[in-house]
Write a structure and sequence with these properties.
This protein is of the alpha/beta class and about 575 residues long. It contains 24 helices and 17 strands. The chain binds 2'-deoxyguanosine-5'-triphosphate, calcium ion (CA) (2 copies) and zinc ion. One calcium ion binds near residues 188, 199, 201 and 248.
Length: about 575
């Protein structure tokens, strides 16, 4: 358990206690502890395990809370927390997550109206019972209704790609310590690089399934992050992790591994098409293999499945029954799709000139570590005051610094001068032409006015795209997964404007964005668009997000040639210069 998770539990205890009407000081002790833990620089796991005497020095954390921290770090559980949760309606915790609803209001709703969950709250609001409560009125009711709708809309039970992938990789690492395992891989939507993940599917083969199958399952359900075992069997078990994500683990016979990988990678729609193709050839394809009558004829490797039904190998990312079967039947092979190793640079990054956490030099060192040829620093323009956007003075300072660094780092990496320029409400850009002209990379992004009506939004974006200095349309829809819906506009028209004006479309690789989405990537490619895949890094540890963006590119059937930042530095600058 890390600091954030521990702080989360303390905050939840405080909320529950407050709703239950506990003593103010007790509530406050937990709340203050949660705040302090969230803001402390040290990892509590290190302190508990290596320097327990330092626990006493933590500000605002008394003895009782210290022992809870130790309990949480060492066992992952906490008796006080379990005790407090007993008999407390779980639905109230969900209500607490609504915007504008703190423990005070929840206590009132529960105490006065007996509300225990979201459905009951919604009913009470619709029956206008809430406005009668002390301190409430028409407006509080309307706000609550809005918060309920918003919550229903955004709180999907799907997880961000990086959360799921990190979890999966950690479990695989943990399981690999079991010497009997010969193969272990994740399948499902995670392997297909979908933008959100429902649950994690892991497949395992072992040297001797009869002997060690049981051991594998025992190890799996004992994984320290497991908070609930949904099912435990000899060949399949399911658990829920602390993060809320479910994991399915299956032990597979080595002879069936390919067939199982194919089946559990999906998608379901793709599987159904494969099964039908097999039937037409008088075969049966299942998760166990390819069968002719009762006899298993292949299935050890995934390619066996495609071979059996007369298809070339299909990469996991495009298995969705969106034309890949038809294409495969008509062609000997697929185009060579984009790969992570094709990427030679990253054209959207922030430094501490705006809201980034690192200096330009620190970013440069990180990118050198990745083996990139170049990267662009594209801090925000001035309008983004909240994120510390750059004014004219900062721009000049930054260019001088970039020039200096380029001399110093010559032969190692090249830094491009860029900017993420805001698209203003009327479609003009936040920097004048004089400034834009001097930049190597101009990304245009809409961070504000995301709720204009459909036609105005379309017009606004197109007019920004038409600015002769625009090079890249940054995170085109502005969506944030589970948080903010995309802007509404005519995507096809915007794509066409990008093609006409030679503005590349960004696939923003940040797992919270993954914007453009795969469907539009494919449409844009068909319309002749060019793409860039950028991490939009605000810190050095985000530069590894590239793989998620490449995954979306592959889902959109992109090849290396479609993506500008696969070019070498010389070709890239020649391309950008040719646009004028
Ligand atoms: P998710 O977890 O919702 O992000 O999406 P998936 O694709 O990982 O789906 P999941 O975990 O329910 O199942 C994993 C794979 O197993 C799925 O992609 C295809 C296969 N599968 C599951 N249920 C069925 C089914 O009823 N029929 C067929 N043909 N395949 C299935
Ligand atoms: Ca899944
Ligand atoms: Ca599953
Ligand atoms: Zn941005």
């Amino acid at each position: 358990m890390d600091n954030k998770q521990i702080a989360g539990i303390f905050a939840e205890i405080a909320d529950i206690l407050e709703i239950q009407g506990a003593d103010f000081f007790r509530v406050n002790a937990y709340r203050k502890a949660a705040f302090n833990i969230l803001n402390m620089p040290h990892d509590l796991r290190d302190i508990v395990e290596k320097r327990p005497q330092e626990l006493k020095k933590l500000p605002g954390i008394g003895e009782a809370l210290r022992s809870i921290i130790t309990e949480l770090v060492t066992t992952g559980k906490c008796e006080t927390y379990e005790e407090i949760k007993k008999g407390f309606p779980e639905g109230l915790l969900e209500i607490l997550r609504l915007r504008g609803l703190g423990p005070k209001k929840v206590k009132l709703l529960h105490g006065e109206l007996g509300i225990k969950n979201l459905t009951e709250l919604k009913k009470a609001v619709e029956m206008h019972l809430v406005r009668e409560l002390p301190g409430m009125g028409d407006k509080s009711e309307a706000d609550m209704l809005k918060a309920i709708d918003e919550y229903a809309h955004f709180s999907s039970d799907r997880f961000l790609a990086d959360e799921a992938r990190d979890e999966a990789e950690r479990i695989i690492q943990y399981m690999k310590e079991c010497k009997d395992i010969t193969k272990i891989e994740y399948a499902g939507s995670l392997r297909r690089c979908q933008d959100t993940i429902g649950d994690i599917d892991i497949l395992v083969t072992v040297k001797d399934p009869v002997k060690s199958g049981k051991e594998i399952m025992e190890r799996f359900v004992k994984y320290p992050e497991v908070i609930h075992v949904v099912a435990e069997g000899d060949t399949k078990s399911s658990t829920t992790l602390r993060s809320g994500i479910d994991v399915d683990l299956r032990v597979i016979d080595d002879e069936s591994f390919g067939a199982a990988m194919h089946y559990f990678t999906g998608s379901k729609a793709h599987n159904i098409r494969i099964r039908d193709l097999a039937k037409k050839k008088g075969l049966k394809v299942s998760e166990y293999g390819v069968f002719k009558g009762e006899k298993c004829i292949s299935g050890k490797e995934e390619k066996d499945i495609f071979e059996a039904v007369g298809l070339p190998y299909i990469i996991p990312e495009i298995r969705s029954d969106n034309g890949e079967i038809e294409y495969g039947l008509a062609h000997k092979e697929f185009p060579k799709f984009l790969e992570l190793k094709d990427m030679r640079g990253d054209l959207h990054n922030h430094s501490h000139y705006s809201d980034g956490k690192n200096s330009i030099e620190e970013m440069a060192q990180a990118f050198i570590g990745k083996g990139y040829e170049y990267f662009a620093i594209t801090d925000h323009s001035s309008v983004m005051g909240v994120t510390g956007g750059m004014g004219k003075k900062d721009v000049n300072e930054q260019w001088a610094e970039v020039d200096k660094l380029n001399k110093k780092l010559k032969g190692k990496i090249t830094i491009l001068k860029g900017c993420e320029v805001d698209i203003l409400k009327d479609g003009s850009l936040d920097f004048d032409d004089e400034t834009l002209k001097k930049l190597d990379v101009v990304i245009i992004s809409a961070h504000m006015h995301q709720r204009l009506d459909y036609d105005s939004q379309t017009k606004r974006l197109i007019s920004a795209i038409e600015n002769k200095y625009s090079r890249i349309l940054g995170h085109p829809t502005g969506r944030m997964i589970n948080r903010r819906s995309p802007m509404e506009f005519d995507m096809e028209k915007v794509i066409e404007a990008c093609v006409k004006n030679k503005v590349a479309l960004e696939i923003n690789a940040n797992p919270l964005r993954l914007d453009l989405i795969d469907k539009y990537v494919r449409i844009a490619k068909e319309k002749g668009a060019k793409f860039v895949i950028n991490t939009d890094s605000h810190a050095t540890d985000q530069i590894d997000f590239m793989k998620y963006g490449v995954g979306i590119g592959r889902r959109g059937w992109l090849t290396k040639n479609d993506v500008l930042n696969t070019m070498n530095f010389k070709d890239l600058t020649a391309y950008f210069n040719s646009v004028y």
